[in-house]
Design brief:
- The complex is a heterotrimer.
- Chain A has a domain of 208 residues.
- Chain A contains 13 helices and 2 strands, in the order H-H-H-H-H-H-E-E-H-H-H-H-H-H-H.
- In chain A, strand 1 and strand 2 form a beta hairpin.
- The radius of gyration of chain A is 21 Å and the shape is globular.
- Chain B is an all-alpha fold.
- Chain B has one domain: ABC transporter involved in vitamin B12 uptake, BtuC (Orthogonal Bundle), CATH 1.10.3470.
- Helices cover 71% and strands 1% of the residues of chain B.
- A two-stranded antiparallel ribbon of chain B has the order 1-2.
- In chain B, helix 4 runs antiparallel to helix 5.
- The longest helix of chain B is centred in the last third of the chain and has 30 residues.
- By secondary structure, chain C is of the alpha/beta class.
- Helices cover 34% and strands 26% of the residues of chain C.
- Chain C is built from 18 helices and 24 strands.
- In chain C, the strands form 6 sheets. Chain C has a 6-stranded mixed sheet with strand order 6-9-10-3-11-12. Chain C has a 6-stranded mixed sheet with strand order 18-21-22-15-23-24, sandwiched between helices. In chain C, strands 2-1-4-5 form a 4-stranded antiparallel sheet, covered by helices on one side.
- Classes of the chains: A mainly alpha, B mainly alpha, C alpha/beta.
Chain lengths: 327, 339, 507
């Protein structure tokens, strides 16, 4: 039977996404090539480690946040949670808590914020914008309060020696924490691709009603995703503080947007239902490398933010064009 | 929701405002002093001015994340041009022009280039921030500003501060727009059912563009007034301003998905948050506790609002077809931006 | 004025790789109700889109009022005197009736509205002549679906349309509301408005149609006067009019009830005295392998019973599975106990439109393709392919995005999802709504097959013929109560059934 009304393109989602990723990768390589030409320092060991450190934070939170966005939600509080956990880690270490325990506590704090977000969004049915805005304000306040309690704007002095150990330990030429971060990202990549969590996230993001009617525990999945985001952010926060040698409530500004930019750049739709982990990784790298190159070239901050804005807009346009061309 | 429900919601908001005022008045009688109340109003006038346009914008299903950076940029332009010696009138116009320009850029990106509002305005936000830093290499413009620069924000017409006059005018104009004009009605239509609006011959694209331009202009007004009041051109102000505006708008009953909303609700919402902040400051509560308070209040208020809506819906509902009557998909982040 | 309003000559439409329409020609006469019927994929929607400006034709010509007509947009077609009532209502819920009626046509000066009392009362007169119960200042959100439709119709009439296209207008209406709509349509004819009526429901052709055009595979098969067609149908029930079905499918089809395969023993599902906000004292047994039908008018409680069983509503009373009482507080509970639901609105409740066939099917029972929380792409593919074969889903392959499938195929995907959950009880809410005759028949066959293998099926339907075709027993609902359960068979009395469900008969 000829189905005359069915459009010929059945819409192979996989095909479109591969092309998108390829384009993204191409852009990344082009940027790296341009950077190397413009400034040989780009490929230097010191510089690479620096960039990767910054990018690592985004990718860490992004690893869970990408699934969260696919499931149709997002988290605006990650920036402040990043700051808060860093400050807490410094504060606790300064006051005698052994580093390992301190890290554990701060990670738990991150998870706690995730739990609150999840509970508000799925339990109390509050829109993610409002819910995570609320936690953002709270985390922000707490971060500054803790710093103030310490007596200054940042927690910098009087930190025990091994506070910095975690951040500075090397395994051969590579910082330890980068290896751990890499391991975590790989783990989450696996989680993203091969587990039922992935199936549920895509389903919930695509049609939450149908998901519920198919027996998926929508509330539990969403809460889990928020908790994962919070936990990873907590880890990122304490690692960052460790590396920087201080806990500052100001580090988080704009972090949540950096994460969202990386995720959206990578092909995840704002509305949920589709997205890519690898895309998020490449997106984070692009944002990181562009910023880094401009820093090396002593380009003013202005251009960097402008560029960030342009990249974001350009990426979405590109993404859409590809989709339409194939559709 | 029927008429009754909407009014009840506003009543609740007023109630919350009254509660906050009473609590703080009891805790610290200075709160109730006339000068203090005026102070609250002035502090919040910027959010309210920008909020007027953003309310309409969000009713039409859009969102603007660049409001804060536009406020900052307009103020910077105003200060820079003033310092360079230009007559105050020209400097003012340039500041406003900057706001208009940003609004236009947003309009073009969303309507002509079909970029989701969330992303488009996020992009302008970044660019606006960057430009603000460029204007003065990241420094605060403090010296070299003519005296008349700060008159706008601090002087008054008779006993009434100019700021409040501007606020009153803007609010009055937008009330008229909301109720009587094409812009107001069509925003609801576009946010409620864009297809129906277009099929009825409404120029949805045109209206949305106007809304973005208006938002930019209002941000420009707020920006120059803020710069004048603070007597500086500071590239760091306005961070988080867009959230303050969105919070006020949502608190006031505007749905993130569009189709319904209220100007007066936004004003009350903004005043609630403003009173809270000032009240805490008066009690010498640490500034950062305010942040926490803001967060908690926001969530509580929205919770209350939602509970109210749900209860009213259950009372007045005709049996809806299908299995989902009463099953609301939990927390499905309906990200604004139905362009 | 000539008799012919719209003259369609040799219209063709190509999409890449597909010939959607081939050489379609027929006339639509003035002041008639002209029905267009055909299966999904026959080209109905494409033809309508071309007629109303949403698509450009690839070839052929179109005459409207004797003049060449090539609208470049729906807006343009509307300006020329056409109105279209889509399936999705185009009213703004947040505005009032008056504001909707005047939307886009208000008197405006310097961007501000001026109340045009004359125009408003003109339109309002039209509205009240159709349905006097709608008040000007009511919020449209508070109106029923039928009333919203009336508002749209009034708006169309007020804009002096010569022809109104209606796409499946009765899909969401109760029997009473359908009758009202038909009365309105008859009024329209008197007002010199032509109606082009697209439908799946064959009975409607005979209820209000003057002429009918049958499309099949993108071609115009026949255009006939309804009176003449009626004669050709002869003794057949309209829904099973052999003549008409032959035109639509190119082959004959006859569905008759076949004795079912209900098994004796403990009922797999039993409800005892179940009450919810809208249900009163609902009790019944369901045997393994039985097909039980629930029939009643809109509002009689069909969907409420499905909701109660599936754990969506709070309820009193007892539910037993295999003789043991169970607690069903959520869809998850229900599914865990072996109950699956094919929801009424497949697009918004049953499918994940942006996902592919193979990604949709396992979602009610993820364990069918996963172990220890990790899923297997191979198993997913195999599962999809096996279902596509068993259930006959027509698509390019298992990666076909579900959104692009026809209604019948989409429903089959939902059905596959439920079958994959290996349930013992399958609830089907309006299983063949909005689905063409051919797919309908296939789904009915599948239901019978499921019953034969031991699954108990409950069919909630507002189509009596469907219930009579399929079900072993039929529970008659009225006002939230089961009035009677009748056994199906040769001696079933349709008239009496109608009596009971309209409240006229029974205790």
């Amino acid at each position: 039977m000829q189905q005359a009304d069915i459009m010929a393109a059945g819409g192979r989602r996989a095909g479109t996404q591969t092309i998108q990723l390829a384009v993204l990768l191409g852009i990344l390589l082009a940027i790296m090539a341009a950077a190397t030409i413009l400034t040989p320092k780009f490929l230097s060991y010191v510089n690479m480690v620096n960039v990767l450190m910054q990018v690592a934070m985004i990718m860490l939170t992004g690893s869970a946040a990408v699934l969260l966005m696919i499931a149709g939600n997002f988290d605006l509080s990650v920036g402040m949670v990043l700051a808060l956990t860093g400050v807490m880690h410094a504060f606790l270490s300064k006051n005698g808590v052994p580093t390992a325990l301190s890290m554990a506590i701060t990670i738990a704090i991150g998870a706690g914020f995730g739990l609150i977000n999840g509970a508000m969004v799925s339990g109390l049915r509050i829109t993610p914008v409002i819910a995570t805005l609320g936690t953002m304000y709270v985390a922000q306040g707490l971060a500054f309060i803790v710093a103030w309690m310490d007596g200054g704007a940042n927690v910098t002095t009087g930190l025990p020696r091994d506070f910095q150990t975690f951040g500075r330990t090397m395994v051969g030429p590579i910082p330890l924490f980068l290896i751990i971060v890499l391991a975590l990202i790989l783990f989450f990549g696996f989680l993203f691709a091969r587990t039922n969590l992935r199936k549920y996230a895509f389903a919930i993001g695509g049609n939450p009603t149908a998901a519920r009617l198919s027996g998926i525990r929508v509330g539990a999945v969403i809460t889990l995703l928020y908790v994962l985001v919070g936990t990873l952010t907590g880890f990122a926060g304490s690692t960052l503080a460790s590396r920087m040698g201080s806990g500052s409530p100001k580090v988080g500004t704009g972090f949540e947007f950096d994460v969202i930019v990386a995720i959206v750049l990578g092909g995840t739709s704002i509305y949920g239902g589709e997205g890519s982990f690898l895309g998020m990784i490449i997106g984070a790298l692009i944002v990181g490398f562009v910023g880094n190159t401009l820093n090396l070239l002593n380009v003013q901050f202005f251009y960097q933010t402008v560029l960030k804005g342009l990249i974001l807009v350009g990426a979405v346009l590109l993404s859409r064009t590809i989709r339409e061309r194939r559709g | 929701m029927n008429r009754k429900a909407v009014d009840l919601q506003k009543l609740v908001l007023v109630g919350i405002l009254a509660l906050v005022v009473v609590v703080f008045a009891v805790l610290n009688p200075r709160f109730i002093r006339g000068t203090n109340l005026v102070y609250i109003l002035i502090q919040n006038s910027f959010v309210i001015i920008a909020g007027c346009a953003v309310t309409l914008l969000m009713i039409a299903g859009q969102i603007d994340l660049s409001i804060g950076s536009t406020v900052c940029l307009a103020g910077m332009a105003f200060a820079y041009v003033s310092r360079a010696g230009a007559p105050i009138g020209l400097a003012l116009l340039i500041g406003l022009g900057v706001g208009l320009a940003v609004g236009l850029i947003n309009a073009v990106m969303v309507v002509k280039l079909h970029i989701t509002p969330f992303i488009a305005t996020l992009g302008t936000m970044y660019m606006g921030r960057g430009l603000s830093y460029l204007v003065s290499d990241g420094l605060v413009i403090r010296e070299g500003l003519p005296d008349v620069f700060s008159s706008l924000g601090t002087d008054g017409i008779g006993p009434v501060p100019i700021t409040l006059v501007v606020l009153a005018v803007v609010v009055a104009v937008f009330f008229a727009l909301e109720r009587k004009s094409v812009l107001g009605k069509y925003s609801i239509a576009i946010g409620g059912n864009r297809t129906a609006a277009v099929l009825s011959g409404i120029n949805a694209d045109g209206i949305v563009m106007v809304l973005y331009i208006l938002a930019g202009l209002m941000a420009g007004i707020a920006g120059v007034m803020m710069a004048s009041r603070l007597a500086v051109g500071d590239p760091n102000i306005g961070i988080g301003f867009e959230f303050d505006v969105i919070v006020a708008v949502v608190l006031g009953g505007t749905s993130l998905a569009g189709g319904e909303g209220s100007l007066i609700g936004m004003i009350i919402g903004s005043l609630i948050i403003g009173s809270l902040g000032t009240g805490l400051k008066l009690m010498n509560v640490f500034t950062f506790f305010q942040s926490i308070m803001k967060g908690i209040v926001l969530v509580l208020a929205v919770l209350l609002d939602q509970n109210l809506k749900a209860r009213l819906r259950a009372m007045g509902t005709r049996g809806r077809r299908g299995l989902t009557a009463g099953v609301s998909p939990e927390g499905h982040g309906r990200k604004t931006g139905a362009a | 004025m000539s008799e012919t309003l719209i003259s369609i000559r040799g219209i063709t439409k190509h999409f890449p790789g597909v010939n959607a329409l081939r050489d379609v020609s027929f006339d639509i006469a003035r002041n008639t109700v002209h029905c267009i019927v055909g299966e999904n994929g026959a080209g109905k929607s494409t033809l309508i889109k071309i007629l109303t400006g949403a698509e450009r034709r690839s070839g052929g010509s179109l005459l409207f009022n004797g003049r060449e007509f090539s609208p470049r947009s729906t807006r343009e077609a509307m300006n020329s005197g056409m109105s279209v009532l889509f399936q999705e209502l185009n009213v703004v819920n947040q505005l009032t009736v008056e504001q909707n009626l005047m939307l886009g046509k208000e008197k405006v000066r310097f961007g501000m509205f001026r109340r045009d009392t004359a125009a408003v009362s003109r339109v309002y007169d039209v509205l009240t002549s159709l349905d006097p119960s709608i008040a000007l200042h009511s919020r449209v959100a508070d109106l029923s679906v039928a009333q919203k439709q009336v508002v749209e119709i009034a708006k169309a009439i007020a804009s002096q349309s010569e022809v109104i296209f209606m796409d499946e207008p009765t899909a969401a209406l109760s029997e009473d509301e359908v009758k009202r709509l038909f009365d309105i349509i008859k009024e329209l004819k008197k007002k010199n408005v032509t109606v082009v009526y697209i439908t799946h429901r064959l009975r409607e052709i005979f209820d209000i149609g003057d002429a009918v055009t049958v499309l099949r595979d993108g071609q115009m098969i026949e255009t006939r006067g309804v009176a003449e067609l009626s004669r050709a149908c002869g003794e057949d029930e309209v829904e099973s009019c052999a003549e008409l079905i032959r035109m639509m499918l190119g082959k004959g089809v006859a569905e008759r009830y076949v004795q079912g395969s209900a098994q004796p023993g403990t009922p797999v599902l039993a409800l005892r005295g179940v009450c919810t906000a809208k249900l009163h004292d609902v009790s019944f047994d369901l045997a393994r392998g039985e097909i039980l039908g629930f029939y009643g008018l809109i509002g009689s409680g069909k969907t409420e019973i499905a909701r109660a069983i599936f754990g969506l509503d709070a309820k009193d009373g007892v539910v037993e599975i295999d003789g043991a009482p169970v607690s069903l507080e959520s869809p998850r509970d229900a599914i865990a106990h072996g109950i699956a639901l094919v929801p009424e609105e497949r697009r918004s409740e049953g499918l994940f439109s942006k996902l592919s066939i193979r990604e949709n099917i396992p979602l009610m029972n993820i364990r069918s393709i996963s172990r220890y929380g990790i899923w297997s792409a191979r198993k997913e593919r195999q599962l999809a392919r096996s279902f596509m074969g068993k259930v006959r889903i027509v698509a390019r392959d298992e990666s076909h995005i579900v959104e692009k499938l026809s209604g019948g195929n989409q429903q089959k995907v939902v059905l596959s999802k439920c079958i994959n959950a290996e349930s013992r009880v399958l609830l089907m809410d309006e299983p063949t709504r909005g689905i063409d005759v051919g797919a309908k028949e296939e789904i009915h066959k599948l239901i019978r097959e499921l019953a034969r293998t031991g699954t108990a099926v409950i069919v909630f339907s507002s189509e009596l013929p469907e219930v009579l075709n399929l079900c072993d027993r039929i529970a008659l609902l009225y006002d939230g109560r089961i009035k009677e359960i009748v056994a199906n068979g040769a001696s079933v009395d349709s008239e009496r059934i109608m009596h009971v469900v309209t409240g006229a008969g029974g205790a």
